[in-house]
Protein backbone atom coordinates (compact mmCIF):
# COMPACT_ATOMS: atom_id res chain seq x y z
CA UNK A 1 0.00 0.00 0.00
CA UNK A 2 1.18 3.48 -0.77
CA UNK A 3 1.29 6.00 2.01
CA UNK A 4 -1.46 8.62 1.85
CA UNK A 5 -0.28 12.04 0.70
CA UNK A 6 -1.76 14.90 2.69
CA UNK A 7 -2.56 18.22 1.09
CA UNK A 8 -0.93 21.41 2.35
CA UNK A 9 -4.24 22.53 3.86
CA UNK A 10 -4.56 19.24 5.77
CA UNK A 11 -0.99 19.54 7.06
CA UNK A 12 -1.56 23.11 8.22
CA UNK A 13 -4.79 22.09 9.93
CA UNK A 14 -2.97 19.36 11.88
CA UNK A 15 -0.18 21.78 12.79
CA UNK A 16 -2.77 24.19 14.18
CA UNK A 17 -4.30 21.39 16.24
CA UNK A 18 -0.89 20.42 17.63
CA UNK A 19 -0.09 24.05 18.46
CA UNK A 20 -3.32 24.33 20.45
CA UNK A 21 -2.46 21.12 22.31
CA UNK A 22 1.00 22.49 23.12
CA UNK A 23 -0.51 25.71 24.48
CA UNK A 24 -2.91 23.72 26.66
CA UNK A 25 -0.06 21.58 28.02
CA UNK A 26 2.14 24.62 28.68
CA UNK A 27 -0.72 26.28 30.57
CA UNK A 28 -1.22 23.12 32.64
CA UNK A 29 2.51 22.96 33.36
CA UNK A 30 2.49 26.61 34.49
CA UNK A 31 -0.34 25.85 36.89
CA UNK A 32 1.67 23.00 38.39
CA UNK A 33 4.68 25.34 38.78
CA UNK A 34 2.56 27.52 41.05
CA UNK A 35 1.59 24.42 43.07
CA UNK A 36 5.29 23.65 43.44
CA UNK A 37 5.86 27.20 44.73
CA UNK A 38 3.06 26.74 47.28
CA UNK A 39 4.66 23.54 48.56
CA UNK A 40 8.01 25.35 48.88
CA UNK A 41 6.39 27.92 51.16
CA UNK A 42 5.68 25.12 53.63
CA UNK A 43 9.04 23.36 53.25
CA UNK A 44 11.21 26.52 52.85
CA UNK A 45 13.03 24.87 49.98
CA UNK A 46 14.82 27.18 47.49
CA UNK A 47 13.17 27.90 44.14
CA UNK A 48 15.95 26.28 42.16
CA UNK A 49 17.15 22.68 42.50
CA UNK A 50 20.09 22.37 40.11
CA UNK A 51 20.49 18.62 40.70
CA UNK A 52 16.86 17.94 39.80
CA UNK A 53 17.06 20.22 36.73
CA UNK A 54 20.14 18.30 35.62
CA UNK A 55 18.37 14.95 36.00
CA UNK A 56 15.27 16.28 34.23
CA UNK A 57 17.20 17.56 31.20
CA UNK A 58 19.20 14.36 30.82
CA UNK A 59 16.02 12.26 31.01
CA UNK A 60 14.24 14.49 28.48
CA UNK A 61 17.17 14.42 26.07
CA UNK A 62 17.47 10.63 26.25
CA UNK A 63 13.71 10.12 25.81
CA UNK A 64 13.58 12.63 22.99
CA UNK A 65 16.39 10.86 21.16
CA UNK A 66 15.22 7.28 21.73
CA UNK A 67 11.44 7.71 21.41
CA UNK A 68 10.85 10.76 19.24
CA UNK A 69 14.05 11.23 17.20
CA UNK A 70 14.65 14.76 18.54
CA UNK A 71 18.20 16.07 18.90
CA UNK A 72 19.74 17.24 22.20
CA UNK A 73 20.30 20.94 21.30
CA UNK A 74 16.62 21.35 20.31
CA UNK A 75 15.34 19.78 23.55
CA UNK A 76 17.87 21.67 25.68
CA UNK A 77 16.97 25.06 24.21
CA UNK A 78 13.24 24.40 24.49
CA UNK A 79 13.33 23.27 28.12
CA UNK A 80 15.76 25.97 29.20
CA UNK A 81 13.01 28.42 28.20
CA UNK A 82 10.33 26.41 30.02
CA UNK A 83 12.46 26.07 33.16
CA UNK A 84 13.33 29.79 33.14
CA UNK A 85 9.63 30.65 32.92
CA UNK A 86 8.85 28.27 35.79
CA UNK A 87 11.58 29.78 37.99
CA UNK A 88 10.44 33.36 37.33
CA UNK A 89 6.81 32.38 37.92
CA UNK A 90 7.67 30.81 41.29
CA UNK A 91 9.81 33.82 42.22
CA UNK A 92 6.90 36.16 41.51
CA UNK A 93 4.55 34.04 43.64
CA UNK A 94 6.94 34.02 46.61
CA UNK A 95 7.67 37.75 46.22
CA UNK A 96 3.96 38.56 46.26
CA UNK A 97 3.66 36.68 49.55
CA UNK A 98 6.66 38.55 50.98
CA UNK A 99 5.35 41.94 49.78
CA UNK A 100 1.51 41.88 50.00
CA UNK A 101 1.38 45.70 50.05
CA UNK A 102 2.84 45.86 46.52
CA UNK A 103 -0.18 44.15 44.94
CA UNK A 104 -2.34 47.01 43.75
CA UNK A 105 -5.07 47.03 41.07
CA UNK A 106 -3.24 49.82 39.21
CA UNK A 107 0.51 50.42 39.21
CA UNK A 108 2.04 53.67 37.97
CA UNK A 109 5.35 53.20 36.17
CA UNK A 110 7.71 55.93 34.89
CA UNK A 111 10.08 55.28 31.99
CA UNK A 112 12.17 57.14 29.43
CA UNK A 113 10.54 58.21 26.19
CA UNK A 114 7.16 57.78 24.58
CA UNK A 115 5.30 54.52 24.08
CA UNK A 116 7.41 52.18 22.00
CA UNK A 117 10.76 53.16 23.53
CA UNK A 118 12.97 50.31 24.74
CA UNK A 119 12.33 51.40 28.34
CA UNK A 120 8.59 51.21 27.65
CA UNK A 121 8.95 47.70 26.20
CA UNK A 122 11.00 46.68 29.25
CA UNK A 123 8.31 48.08 31.58
CA UNK A 124 5.60 46.02 29.93
CA UNK A 125 7.75 42.87 29.97
CA UNK A 126 8.71 43.18 33.65
CA UNK A 127 5.29 44.07 35.06
CA UNK A 128 3.52 41.80 32.60
CA UNK A 129 5.16 38.87 34.38
CA UNK A 130 3.50 40.07 37.59
CA UNK A 131 0.05 40.47 36.02
CA UNK A 132 -0.08 44.14 37.03
CA UNK A 133 -2.28 46.64 35.22
CA UNK A 134 -0.13 49.66 34.39
CA UNK A 135 -0.59 53.39 34.27
CA UNK A 136 2.30 54.37 32.01
CA UNK A 137 4.08 57.68 32.60
CA UNK A 138 6.60 58.63 29.94
CA UNK A 139 9.47 60.98 30.89
CA UNK A 140 11.86 63.07 28.83
CA UNK A 141 15.07 62.18 30.69
CA UNK A 142 16.43 59.88 33.41
CA UNK A 143 16.26 62.55 36.15
CA UNK A 144 12.56 63.00 35.46
CA UNK A 145 12.02 59.24 35.89
CA UNK A 146 13.69 59.42 39.32
CA UNK A 147 11.83 62.57 40.37
CA UNK A 148 8.47 61.09 39.31
CA UNK A 149 9.02 58.12 41.64
CA UNK A 150 10.59 60.16 44.48
CA UNK A 151 7.59 62.54 44.47
CA UNK A 152 5.10 59.66 44.68
CA UNK A 153 3.58 60.27 41.26
CA UNK A 154 4.70 56.74 40.28
CA UNK A 155 5.28 53.60 42.33
CA UNK A 156 8.14 52.40 40.11
CA UNK A 157 10.69 53.70 37.64
CA UNK A 158 12.49 51.75 34.92
CA UNK A 159 16.07 52.77 34.08
CA UNK A 160 18.56 51.20 31.64
CA UNK A 161 21.86 50.60 33.43
CA UNK A 162 24.15 48.80 30.95
CA UNK A 163 24.30 47.39 27.43
CA UNK A 164 26.39 44.52 26.09
CA UNK A 165 27.51 46.64 23.13
CA UNK A 166 27.90 50.24 24.36
CA UNK A 167 28.67 49.41 28.01
CA UNK A 168 27.51 51.20 31.15
CA UNK A 169 25.02 54.06 30.96
CA UNK A 170 26.97 56.58 33.02
CA UNK A 171 24.13 59.08 33.41
CA UNK A 172 22.10 56.49 35.32
CA UNK A 173 25.04 55.48 37.53
CA UNK A 174 25.62 59.15 38.38
CA UNK A 175 21.92 59.52 39.16
CA UNK A 176 22.06 56.65 41.67
CA UNK A 177 24.64 58.59 43.72
CA UNK A 178 22.13 61.28 44.59
CA UNK A 179 18.74 59.56 44.72
CA UNK A 180 16.92 58.19 47.76
CA UNK A 181 15.33 55.43 45.65
CA UNK A 182 15.96 51.71 46.12
CA UNK A 183 16.61 49.10 43.44
CA UNK A 184 13.82 46.51 43.74
CA UNK A 185 14.18 44.50 40.52
CA UNK A 186 16.05 43.98 37.27
CA UNK A 187 15.31 42.85 33.74
CA UNK A 188 17.60 41.98 30.83
CA UNK A 189 16.03 42.58 27.44
CA UNK A 190 17.27 41.72 23.93
CA UNK A 191 17.69 44.88 21.88
CA UNK A 192 16.84 44.39 18.22
CA UNK A 193 17.79 47.54 16.36
CA UNK A 194 16.52 48.17 12.86
CA UNK A 195 16.16 51.12 10.52
CA UNK A 196 12.57 52.34 10.17
CA UNK A 197 11.01 54.90 7.82
CA UNK A 198 7.59 56.05 6.65
CA UNK A 199 7.96 54.03 3.44
CA UNK A 200 10.42 51.81 1.60
CA UNK A 201 13.45 54.03 0.87
CA UNK A 202 16.99 53.34 -0.35
CA UNK A 203 19.79 53.59 2.21
CA UNK A 204 21.76 55.89 -0.07
CA UNK A 205 18.84 58.38 -0.11
CA UNK A 206 18.83 58.83 3.68
CA UNK A 207 20.30 62.18 4.73
CA UNK A 208 19.31 62.34 8.42
CA UNK A 209 19.02 59.54 10.98
CA UNK A 210 17.25 60.05 14.31
CA UNK A 211 17.73 58.05 17.51
CA UNK A 212 18.83 58.10 21.14
CA UNK A 213 22.65 58.38 21.54
CA UNK A 214 22.86 54.79 22.87
CA UNK A 215 21.60 53.13 19.64
CA UNK A 216 23.94 55.41 17.68
CA UNK A 217 26.82 53.85 19.64
CA UNK A 218 25.45 50.33 19.44
CA UNK A 219 25.06 50.56 15.62
CA UNK A 220 28.26 52.51 14.93
CA UNK A 221 29.72 49.97 12.48
CA UNK A 222 26.61 50.01 10.29
CA UNK A 223 26.36 53.81 10.49
CA UNK A 224 29.99 54.22 9.44
CA UNK A 225 29.07 52.65 6.10
CA UNK A 226 26.38 55.26 5.39
CA UNK A 227 27.93 58.16 3.53
CA UNK A 228 26.88 61.74 4.24
CA UNK A 229 24.26 60.83 6.84
CA UNK A 230 23.70 63.30 9.70
CA UNK A 231 22.98 61.75 13.10
CA UNK A 232 20.39 63.57 15.20
CA UNK A 233 19.94 62.69 18.89
CA UNK A 234 16.51 62.40 20.51
CA UNK A 235 15.35 61.78 24.08
CA UNK A 236 14.44 58.18 23.18
CA UNK A 237 14.02 55.85 20.21
CA UNK A 238 10.26 56.41 20.43
CA UNK A 239 10.71 60.17 20.15
CA UNK A 240 12.95 59.57 17.12
CA UNK A 241 10.28 57.47 15.43
CA UNK A 242 7.61 60.04 16.20
CA UNK A 243 9.83 62.72 14.63
CA UNK A 244 10.26 60.68 11.44
CA UNK A 245 6.51 60.02 11.28
CA UNK A 246 5.71 63.73 11.55
CA UNK A 247 8.31 64.74 8.94
CA UNK A 248 7.02 62.13 6.45
CA UNK A 249 10.01 62.48 4.11
CA UNK A 250 11.98 60.05 1.94
CA UNK A 251 15.39 61.20 3.24
CA UNK A 252 14.93 60.59 6.98
CA UNK A 253 14.84 57.41 9.10
CA UNK A 254 15.11 56.31 12.72
CA UNK A 255 16.73 53.51 14.70
CA UNK A 256 14.39 51.51 16.91
CA UNK A 257 12.50 48.27 17.41
CA UNK A 258 10.41 47.08 14.44
CA UNK A 259 7.29 46.49 16.57
CA UNK A 260 7.60 49.98 18.05
CA UNK A 261 7.94 51.43 14.56
CA UNK A 262 4.52 49.99 13.69
CA UNK A 263 2.99 52.06 16.51
CA UNK A 264 4.04 55.13 14.53
CA UNK A 265 3.11 53.79 11.10
CA UNK A 266 6.75 53.11 10.17
CA UNK A 267 8.14 50.08 8.35
CA UNK A 268 11.48 48.35 8.73
CA UNK A 269 13.88 48.97 5.84
CA UNK A 270 17.00 47.32 7.34
CA UNK A 271 17.14 44.81 10.21
CA UNK A 272 19.96 43.55 12.47
CA UNK A 273 22.07 46.71 12.32
CA UNK A 274 23.66 46.49 15.80
CA UNK A 275 27.40 45.92 16.18
CA UNK A 276 26.74 42.72 18.14
CA UNK A 277 24.17 40.10 17.27
CA UNK A 278 23.74 39.39 21.00
CA UNK A 279 22.74 42.91 22.00
CA UNK A 280 21.07 43.12 25.43
CA UNK A 281 20.28 45.93 27.84
CA UNK A 282 19.93 45.44 31.58
CA UNK A 283 17.27 47.59 33.24
CA UNK A 284 16.80 48.24 36.94
CA UNK A 285 13.47 48.86 38.66
CA UNK A 286 13.51 51.58 41.34
CA UNK A 287 10.99 52.46 44.07
CA UNK A 288 10.75 54.67 47.15
CA UNK A 289 10.84 51.73 49.55
CA UNK A 290 13.02 48.59 49.48
CA UNK A 291 11.45 45.24 48.69
CA UNK A 292 11.50 42.17 50.92
CA UNK A 293 13.22 39.30 49.10
CA UNK A 294 12.27 35.75 49.99
CA UNK A 295 15.35 33.80 51.16
CA UNK A 296 14.25 30.99 48.82
CA UNK A 297 14.92 33.18 45.77
CA UNK A 298 18.31 33.79 44.10
CA UNK A 299 19.02 37.43 44.95
CA UNK A 300 21.36 40.24 44.02
CA UNK A 301 22.58 43.10 46.21
CA UNK A 302 23.83 46.40 44.82
CA UNK A 303 25.86 48.82 46.94
CA UNK A 304 28.08 51.84 46.40
CA UNK A 305 31.28 52.58 48.27
CA UNK A 306 34.09 55.12 48.36
CA UNK A 307 37.54 53.87 49.31
CA UNK A 308 40.48 55.79 50.73
CA UNK A 309 43.02 57.23 48.30
CA UNK A 310 45.77 54.78 49.28
CA UNK A 311 47.44 52.03 47.26
CA UNK A 312 45.56 48.73 47.41
CA UNK A 313 42.42 50.12 49.07
CA UNK A 314 40.09 48.82 46.34
CA UNK A 315 41.82 45.43 46.28
CA UNK A 316 41.34 45.20 50.05
CA UNK A 317 37.57 45.60 49.65
CA UNK A 318 37.39 42.99 46.89
CA UNK A 319 39.32 40.51 49.03
CA UNK A 320 36.58 40.82 51.64
CA UNK A 321 34.03 39.57 49.10
CA UNK A 322 36.35 36.76 48.08
CA UNK A 323 36.90 35.70 51.68
CA UNK A 324 33.17 35.25 52.22
CA UNK A 325 32.64 33.47 48.90
CA UNK A 326 30.50 36.26 47.43
CA UNK A 327 30.49 36.43 43.63
CA UNK A 328 30.77 39.95 42.18
CA UNK A 329 28.97 40.40 38.84
CA UNK A 330 29.59 44.13 38.27
CA UNK A 331 32.15 46.74 39.33
CA UNK A 332 31.76 50.26 37.95
CA UNK A 333 33.61 53.43 38.96
CA UNK A 334 32.23 56.96 38.57
CA UNK A 335 33.70 60.31 39.67
CA UNK A 336 32.36 61.86 42.89
CA UNK A 337 30.93 65.25 42.01
CA UNK A 338 32.77 68.01 43.88
CA UNK A 339 35.66 65.74 44.88
CA UNK A 340 38.25 65.87 42.06
CA UNK A 341 40.08 62.57 41.38
CA UNK A 342 37.91 60.63 43.81
CA UNK A 343 35.60 57.84 42.65
CA UNK A 344 32.49 56.03 43.79
CA UNK A 345 32.39 52.29 43.11
CA UNK A 346 29.16 50.52 42.22
CA UNK A 347 29.12 46.81 43.04
CA UNK A 348 26.63 44.07 42.12
CA UNK A 349 26.96 40.75 43.96
CA UNK A 350 25.06 37.48 43.85
CA UNK A 351 23.95 37.36 47.47
CA UNK A 352 20.98 38.19 49.68
CA UNK A 353 21.81 41.22 51.84
CA UNK A 354 20.45 39.46 54.95
CA UNK A 355 22.46 36.23 54.58
CA UNK A 356 25.26 35.71 57.09
CA UNK A 357 28.10 36.01 54.54
CA UNK A 358 26.76 39.30 53.13
CA UNK A 359 26.13 40.78 56.57
CA UNK A 360 29.68 39.95 57.63
CA UNK A 361 31.07 41.40 54.42
CA UNK A 362 29.10 44.65 54.79
CA UNK A 363 30.28 45.03 58.40
CA UNK A 364 33.91 44.62 57.35
CA UNK A 365 33.56 46.89 54.32
CA UNK A 366 31.98 49.62 56.44
CA UNK A 367 35.12 49.67 58.60
CA UNK A 368 37.60 49.96 55.71
CA UNK A 369 35.72 52.33 53.38
CA UNK A 370 34.99 56.06 53.64
CA UNK A 371 31.37 55.54 52.62
CA UNK A 372 29.08 52.58 51.92
CA UNK A 373 25.39 52.43 51.06
CA UNK A 374 23.23 49.50 49.99
CA UNK A 375 21.11 50.60 47.03
CA UNK A 376 18.95 47.50 46.99
CA UNK A 377 18.48 43.77 47.36
CA UNK A 378 16.23 42.24 44.71
CA UNK A 379 15.41 38.95 42.91
CA UNK A 380 17.93 38.02 40.25
CA UNK A 381 16.53 38.15 36.72
CA UNK A 382 19.36 36.03 35.37
CA UNK A 383 18.16 32.42 35.43
CA UNK A 384 21.36 30.63 34.53
CA UNK A 385 20.62 27.48 32.52
CA UNK A 386 21.77 24.14 33.87
CA UNK A 387 24.05 22.43 31.33
CA UNK A 388 23.09 18.74 31.02
CA UNK A 389 25.95 16.28 31.56
CA UNK A 390 25.42 13.52 29.05
CA UNK A 391 27.27 10.21 28.91
CA UNK A 392 29.70 10.15 26.00
Automatic annotation (TrEMBL):
<comment type="pathway">
    <text>Metabolic intermediate biosynthesis; prephenate biosynthesis; prephenate from chorismate: step 1/1.</text>
</comment>
<keyword id="KW-0456">Lyase</keyword>
<feature type="domain" description="Chorismate mutase">
    <location>
        <begin position="2"/>
        <end position="94"/>
    </location>
</feature>
<keyword id="KW-0963">Cytoplasm</keyword>
<feature type="binding site">
    <location>
        <position position="86"/>
    </location>
    <ligand>
        <name>substrate</name>
    </ligand>
</feature>
<feature type="coiled-coil region">
    <location>
        <begin position="8"/>
        <end position="35"/>
    </location>
</feature>
<keyword id="KW-0028">Amino-acid biosynthesis</keyword>
<dbReference type="GO" id="GO:0004106">
    <property type="term" value="F:chorismate mutase activity"/>
</dbReference>
<feature type="site" description="Essential for prephenate dehydratase activity">
    <location>
        <position position="281"/>
    </location>
</feature>
<keyword id="KW-0584">Phenylalanine biosynthesis</keyword>
<feature type="binding site">
    <location>
        <position position="90"/>
    </location>
    <ligand>
        <name>substrate</name>
    </ligand>
</feature>
<feature type="binding site">
    <location>
        <position position="53"/>
    </location>
    <ligand>
        <name>substrate</name>
    </ligand>
</feature>
<dbReference type="InterPro" id="IPR002912">
    <property type="entry name" value="ACT_dom"/>
</dbReference>
<feature type="binding site">
    <location>
        <position position="49"/>
    </location>
    <ligand>
        <name>substrate</name>
    </ligand>
</feature>
<feature type="binding site">
    <location>
        <position position="29"/>
    </location>
    <ligand>
        <name>substrate</name>
    </ligand>
</feature>
<dbReference type="InterPro" id="IPR008242">
    <property type="entry name" value="Chor_mutase/pphenate_deHydtase"/>
</dbReference>
<dbReference type="InterPro" id="IPR002701">
    <property type="entry name" value="CM_II_prokaryot"/>
</dbReference>
<dbReference type="InterPro" id="IPR018528">
    <property type="entry name" value="Preph_deHydtase_CS"/>
</dbReference>
<protein>
    <recommendedName>
        <fullName>Bifunctional chorismate mutase/prephenate dehydratase</fullName>
        <ecNumber>4.2.1.51</ecNumber>
        <ecNumber>5.4.99.5</ecNumber>
    </recommendedName>
</protein>
<dbReference type="InterPro" id="IPR045865">
    <property type="entry name" value="ACT-like_dom_sf"/>
</dbReference>
<comment type="function">
    <text>Catalyzes the Claisen rearrangement of chorismate to prephenate and the decarboxylation/dehydration of prephenate to phenylpyruvate.</text>
</comment>
<keyword id="KW-0175">Coiled coil</keyword>
<dbReference type="InterPro" id="IPR001086">
    <property type="entry name" value="Preph_deHydtase"/>
</dbReference>
<keyword id="KW-0057">Aromatic amino acid biosynthesis</keyword>
<dbReference type="Pfam" id="PF01817">
    <property type="entry name" value="CM_2"/>
</dbReference>
<dbReference type="GO" id="GO:0009094">
    <property type="term" value="P:L-phenylalanine biosynthetic process"/>
</dbReference>
<dbReference type="Pfam" id="PF00800">
    <property type="entry name" value="PDT"/>
</dbReference>
<feature type="binding site">
    <location>
        <position position="40"/>
    </location>
    <ligand>
        <name>substrate</name>
    </ligand>
</feature>
<dbReference type="InterPro" id="IPR010952">
    <property type="entry name" value="CM_P_1"/>
</dbReference>
<dbReference type="InterPro" id="IPR036263">
    <property type="entry name" value="Chorismate_II_sf"/>
</dbReference>
<feature type="domain" description="Prephenate dehydratase">
    <location>
        <begin position="108"/>
        <end position="288"/>
    </location>
</feature>
<keyword id="KW-0511">Multifunctional enzyme</keyword>
<feature type="binding site">
    <location>
        <position position="12"/>
    </location>
    <ligand>
        <name>substrate</name>
    </ligand>
</feature>
<dbReference type="GO" id="GO:0004664">
    <property type="term" value="F:prephenate dehydratase activity"/>
</dbReference>
<dbReference type="GO" id="GO:0005737">
    <property type="term" value="C:cytoplasm"/>
</dbReference>
<feature type="domain" description="ACT">
    <location>
        <begin position="302"/>
        <end position="379"/>
    </location>
</feature>
<keyword id="KW-0413">Isomerase</keyword>
<comment type="pathway">
    <text>Amino-acid biosynthesis; L-phenylalanine biosynthesis; phenylpyruvate from prephenate: step 1/1.</text>
</comment>
<dbReference type="GO" id="GO:0046417">
    <property type="term" value="P:chorismate metabolic process"/>
</dbReference>
<dbReference type="InterPro" id="IPR036979">
    <property type="entry name" value="CM_dom_sf"/>
</dbReference>
